[in-house]
Amino acid sequence: MANSNLSITIERNPSQSRLTELNIKCWPKWGCSPGKYQLKFDAEETCYLLKGKVKAYPKGSSEFVEFGAGDLVTIPRGMSCTWDVSVAVDKYYKFESNSSSSSSC
């Protein structure tokens, strides 16, 4: 059953110091071409889009959230949504885990 209280948060154009603090350059990268993707997030994901444009439609809602290059996006654990990608995506991403290890690259 979908939890309607889940929502995607977007931090538009975070500062370089914020990106450095998050150590995003050590995160894995992922990309996709334009198209529609059904996604389910079993863990909270934080991602930083280097390029791309996405409309994310949470399951069971006609509303959408739009984000793209330069945005830092947090998607909550348990969310199911459709990504309508109009411009190919290239992003850094990180899934939250219970380990408290800080990644160094």
Automatic annotation (TrEMBL):
Pfam families (alphabetical): Cupin_3 (PF05899)
Residues covered by the (S)-ureidoglycine aminohydrolase cupin domain: 22-93
Residues in the signal sequence: none
Gene3D superfamilies, per database record: Jelly Rolls
This protein's name: (S)-ureidoglycine aminohydrolase cupin domain-containing protein
Gene source species: Flemingia macrophylla
